Sequence to fold (786 residues):
Amino acid sequence: MKLTKLAAAAVAASIAATPVLADLVFPSLDYRTGPYAANGIPFADGYADYFTLVNARDGGIGGVAAKVIACETGYNTEKGVECYESTKGEGALVYQPLSTGITYQLIPKATADGIPVHSMGYGRTSAANGKVFSNIFNYPANYWNGASHAVNHAIADSGGDISGKTIALVYHNSAYGKEPIRTLEELSKKHGFKLSLLAVDHPGQEQKSQWLQIRREKPDYVFMWGWGVMNQVAIQEAANIRYPMDKFVGIWWSGSENDVLPAGDGANGYKALAMHNVGSDFPVFDDIKKYVVDAGKAAGAGDQVGTVLYNRGMYAAMLAVEAAKTAQEIHGTADITPAMMRDGMEALVIDEAKMTALGMPNFGPTFSVSCENHGGPGLGAISQWDASAKKWSLISGFEPSDNEIINALIAEDSAAFAAENNIAEGCK
Amino acid sequence: MLYREAGDFKTSYAKDQQTFPIAFDRWGYFITVAFAFLVVPFLINDYWVNAVVLPFLIYSVAAIGLNILTGYCGQVSLGTGGFMAVGAFSAYKLMTAFPELSMIIVILLSGGVTAFVGILFGLPSLRIKGFYLAVATLAAQFFLVWMFNKFPWFYNYSASGQISAPERSVFGFAVTGANVTPAVSYLFCLCFVFVLAWVARNLTRGANGRKWMAIRDMDIAAEIIGVDPLKTKLTAFGVSSFYIGIAGALLFAIYLGAAEVGEAFDISKSFLVLFMIIIGGLGSIFGSFAGAAFMVLMPVLLKNIMVGYLGWPTDLASHFQFVIVGGLIVIFLILEPHGFAQLWRLAKEKLRLWPFPH
Fold:
């Protein structure tokens, strides 16, 4: 009892001490511990480093310094709630939860609090319908686009016809892994392939039976929706049963260096989707080296620069900074609020000139966001792992997905959400 | 001086049997309850409710539930997470199937459904004991989580398998969904906690509680003196699961708002609640609260100190948190194997004599 009182007093004291609201606050709900840390660390480093770069090189966003508040979630939804509540009071402009579970939780909370959430390539796919999900953004691409990209790739790979063939989906048995199933089912009706579903339970270290089944059924393609330690295990298991790696396609969350390196040469030829470019041959990395790494300000151990997920974190930060700039232009003030940030995100335009000016030419697809479409164009590319060079490289351009099927599904799912929560569709 | 029995005369049997026989305790209890109901709602904000108070209250209910089964009746259970999932999913199904139903009824019915499931999984306890029963309840944990993942009916065929609580209100105040004020969700949970703790306290010191404890202490002897093991064990499973189901329903509907069975109700939840009652004290209602407070507040407190004050990197702080909480658990169990409840009892013994111990 004494202890709990002491604890309560100390918690009370630490909450009372909130800093002054001077900076533009970008909370980073990251995870550097737990079974998903291998993937969480590079993303968190990239996200933090880009803001450090913007502060050091440009003197902040429109003259106001950006501040990243890191909060460790461990991919756990309860810690995610704690992180959200403890950071929102500090003037958080946009949340990037990097977890589909936490995103689902934040959708109603953040909407009620008027804070935007950017779930880039994850989260609730139907949030692409901005008329229902006013504060949730998932540009530039979502899972259903990803599912369609993977199928398109399989079609192209098998010479334009996939009917009668089998695709196995190895997925994380959670909201994240289940998201693409509906789309793949629709696509299997349209293209006539057979879909076989293999769930892998959290955290994904045990996959022997799933891969035994793949060995027996010999599907023509295997798709994977995995994250964290599950990716490494799956790629290792695929290598063990000598599954042809060029028929094995992962979502963009299953295609980083950490996932393929443990399997060594066995992982050669493994493919993954990409929503942005890979590698470090971009001028922005010279700036990062000069202003961040060499200045000793790099987040984490500083050894992740240029890896796939580092690039993704950096890309997410870049989109956030550009949206903040857009918001500053729209509202004519440098000191923006979360509501202004939301407007900025909804009016965000990313074109080639902008990316080149930022030192990231051809880094991602060009797109613009609107109230009707919070999901962007859904362009995606295919990347492939070269085990001898230890490098990912894009083997296709950024191509469109089967939007006809996806848009119908988005409309259906968002309408269900709107009905469940009494939301009237419409633009603010 | 103040803390003593002398001068506090009991003139009726009811007074003689009361929970707090010492006037000082009684007043402390009344003041705490009055403070919780009358003062806290006006002070509380979003952060306090969602990060500290709600998880504490909800885990207290779960800990009381498990304490009834394990602490009072001596049946070890590792299925707490699974039973909480039953509560959460029944609440979700009821909320979406009957939008007009008051949340109070939804939560109570979810507890009822869980009680039924708990009795079902309690049946093997008549044949097996100890570790073997723990394994049987472990099977319940894995089976229930698998079931809620496998059959889309449970999550209304949503694409992701995620359940989200729609907005529902009680007496015109929203208690679930996004537009909840901190005071309302706090009071809603507090009422449940207060009533359930009060009922639990009175159940455990009445005939039922004595039967449970008889079974716990020696089941053969209990049977000889006329305690029916079938009925006793199954009532313990039923009452315990009722509490745990309510905790699960509150956790999903009021606290989290959205949940995913594999993540929110996995085996680690079962262990968390088990640790709460072991640290708090087996067979004690106060211990359930103390254990829940320790396991919920300690990580938040450590995080605020290490990240907020000392400015350590979040990953280092998070790893240290495991070390410190784990170390504290070990130290507590060595110094006081009967948990916080026993510490509290000893402190009261000492206080009675203070300041003249001889």
About this structure: Residues 38 and 228 of chain A are 6 Å apart (CA to CA).
